[in-house]
Amino acid sequence: MSKNDKLQELQSLVPADVTICETTQQMLAKAHRDGVDTAFDRAAAMKACPIGEKSACCKHCAMGPCRLNSKDPYSKVGVCGATIDTIQSRNFARMVASGTASHTDHGMEMLNLFKGVVSGEIKDYEISDTEKLIQVAGELGIATEDREINAIARDLCTEMEKTYTQLEGELPFIKRAPLKTQEMWREAGVVPRGAMREIMEIMTRTHMGMDQDYSNLIKQINRTALADGWGGSMVATEIGDILFGTPYPVVGEVNMGVLKKDEVNIIIHGHEPNLFDSMIASVNDPELIAKAEAAGAKGINLVGMCCSGLEMLSRRGVPHAGNFMSTEAVLVTGAVDAMAVDVQCIKQGLAKVADCYGTKLFTTNPRAHIEGVPHIEFEENYPRECTDSVVEMAIKRFAGREHPIDIPKRKDKGVFGFSHEYINYMLGGTFRGSYTPLNDNIINGRIRGVAGVVGCTNPRVKQDWVHVELVKELIKNDILVVQTGCSQISLAKAGLLTPEAAHLAGPGLAEVCETVGMPPVLGLGACVDNSRILTAVCNMVAAGGLGDSIADLPVAGAAPEYMSEKAIAIGQYFVASGVYTIFGVTFPIVEQTKFHKLMFEGLEKQGMGKWDFAVDPHDIAAKMIAHIEKKRAALGLDKDKERVLVGMDDRRAIDS
Ligand code: XCC
Asked: How many helices (H) and strands (E) would you count in the chain?
């Protein structure tokens, strides 16, 4: 293709059609002028494979790959005889295995770091929240009274390690769930043992010629997904809090306007908080600051993106430049001197865009290199070796900036860091912290229910638009929204993570927000922090009045712009935990098949939640609201309580 043809093709994509993020629009237009493509352009140029999209193909052996007809799913079987239900349940199982592996691997890294800190081998990090350590240890049955912190921490490491390595028995955090939910899991035979074992079993059961009954495979799908939510993800969150601090509300700035023309700009993108934490130490090192100044910079500006960014935005208020679909666009500013990435959601396309605009891109994790991108290994025993050298390279690039700098002016403010511990305190105060005020407001109908709106952005739908429209509709209908992951940044850019956004809420929710001084949309952190939502729903059940299990609660979850296998694993653990969960974009199961019926109806009959799917945000909202109202009705909250007039005779009867 000639250069002119390429420019023409790029310019045929209208940025406002693919994203509502103003700064991403500006940078896409600039990229098109510069002849640079991003995932938005590649998605427009490459239609999603219609067979793969519906999961109607199987490439588990060399007799295939076999393609079935998603329009007429029972008209054919694979060469081995596999039916559509076997093929798509196996494909779905492997998505759950991959997503669960990602979160549990992240959690395991946190555990290794924690162990190193406790043993004294790792010296650059320390335990920063001993109160949380004691609370989690107590919850897991570890003696805490009159014991040294380090002794408790050692026992906690041993106990948490079971999350991964245990061959038999139940995951430690299973006890956090309401008893009725635990019983339902036991009855269904889906309580996870150790995550490694569950992932291994899913891989073998999905091998050619193994589990060929979707209704049996679903058990392993659920068991593996639960090992993510109540295992890997929960461990990642809890150790993250113990080491880096439990979040409490902090005002933070988001959007590309957080970059600074006259400073050395460094972006950390990925997932694990340790790299970011060490980078904070590096950019505050007086020697490195002096070097930056000597190179003509006014300072060093550290910024986050995606979930790494959320880890440190929630805990330290570090500015955040944007979510997943803005990671290439931000490089088009020419202002990013260095971007260091660790694991997950790092597009290979970043390498080319970084090259075009002279950004120094570095991979840092042994599990995630990118061909052609320099790698500076991050080692927890000597973390500063990696982060200091990234800073040095960024300073060098600043001094030799060759590309015009074009930073969009817009930045937005939001309140972040609503850990479930803080929600407890916020509602009840120091002495009577509890979820009772939340439950009371749900029971009296001021708040109809709670919705989790989470997950990625995806170039197959207009970036941020589905998240924002959906959340606006929910809060307008008096539904309190909690958020994690990239979705939260979509809403922060739209100004909904501020207490002032209460005016967009329905009268009941607005009244509660104004009384407490909280936003109608609460940001809970990164993707692994979906475990905070699990903990919060457990607290709602424990506070009373809303049923005995998670499945009884008037709650719903959505990932309207999801793209990753991690999101599928998250969705599945919410469903298995009892939560109605709706996804947008596309759904990897053929409608009208037995497996579809099981996921969208059957699981609910077993006491779990269920899947649903819609693309339009208003349809998604309507379905979530209908589900919440259905749960309210089941709890008897749909009718006003009959007023009983108590006469003197009745009083005497009560007294006696
Ligand atoms: Fe990745 Fe966690 Fe999705 Fe964002 S939301 S695109 S998984 S960074 Ni978790």
From this structure: 28, 14
Lowest-confidence segment of 143-152, 393-402, 425-434, 498-507 by average pLDDT: 425-434
Ligand 1 pocket check for 486: Cβ under 6 Å? yes
- With residues binned 3-state (H G I as helix, E B as strand, rest as coil), the percentages for the chain, rounded to 5, are 55, 10, 35
Could you give the CA distance from residue 88 to residue 330 in angstroms, rounded to a whole number? 37
d(CA 194, CA 235): 13
**Ligand 1 in reach of 324 Cβ (< 6 A):** yes
With a 6 A CB cut-off, is 527 part of the ligand 1 pocket?
yes
Give the span between the Cα atoms of 598 and 564, in whole angstroms.
Answer: 22
Q: How far is CA 641 from the centre of its chain?
A: 38
Rounded CA gap, 335 and 646, in Å?
Answer: 72
Cα–Cα distance measured from residue 38 to residue 463, given in angstroms and rounded to the nearest whole number? 13
CB 452 within 8 A of CB 525: no
How many Å apart are CA 413 and CA 580, to the nearest integer? 31
C-alpha 545/C-alpha 523 separation (Å) is: 25
For the segment 70-98, the average pLDDT, to the nearest whole number, is: 97
Write out the DSSP string of 27-62: HHHHHHHHT---HHHHHHHSPPPHHHHTT-EE-SST
Distance separating alpha carbons of residues 528 and 550, to the nearest angstrom: 19
Q: Produce one character per residue of 380-397: b if its CB has 16 or more CB atoms within 10 Å, e if not.
A: beebbebbbebbebbbeb
Structure tokens at 497: 């993570």
Handedness of CA 181, 183, 184, 188 (dihedral sign): positive
Write out 294-316 in H/E/C secondary structure. Answer: HCCCCCEEEEEEHHHHHHHHHHH
Taking the CA of residue 564 as reference, the ligand 1 atom at the shortest distance is 7
Residue 648, token pair as written in the block? 């003197």
Counting from 1 in the atom list of ligand 1, the atom nearest the Cα of 345 is 1
Per-residue pLDDT of 99-120, as tens digits, reads: 999 999 999 999 999 999 999 9
- Separation of CA 511 from chain center: 29
Distance CA 586, CA 570 (A): 16
* Amino acid at site 455: G
Task: Fill in the DSSP letter of residue 81.
Answer: -
What is the distance in A from the centroid of ligand 1 to the CA of 516? 30
CB atoms inside a 10 Å sphere around CB 477: 20
CA–CA dist 40, 62 (Å, integer): 34
Task: Render pLDDT for 401-427 as a digit per residue (tens, 0 to 9).
Answer: 999 999 999 999 999 999 988 888 887
Distance of alpha carbon 656 from alpha carbon 646, whole angstroms: 15
Distance between Cα 250 and ligand 1 center (Å): 21
How many C-beta neighbours within 10 Å does residue 513 have? 23
Tokens 């635990």 found at:
182
Kindly state if the Cβ of 566 falls inside 6 Å of ligand 1: yes
For the Cβ of 524 lying below 6 angstroms from any atom of ligand 1, the answer is no
The backbone torsions φ and ψ at residue 277, rounded to the nearest 5 degrees and listed phi first, read -60, -40
Enter the DSSP assignment of 601.
Answer: I
Looking up tokens 């950390």 gives: 268
Count of CB atoms situated within 10 Å of the CB of 406: 15
The rounded distance, in Å, linking the Cα atoms of 91 and 177 is 29
Distance CA 574, CA 536 (A): 13
Query: From the CB of 475, is ligand 1 less than 6 Å away?
Result: no
Is the pLDDT assigned to residue 448 strictly greater than 80? yes
Q: Hey, how many other C-beta atoms are within 10 angstroms of the C-beta on 605?
A: 9
Which pLDDT does position 656 carry in this prediction? 43
Token pair, residue 176, equals: 């956090």
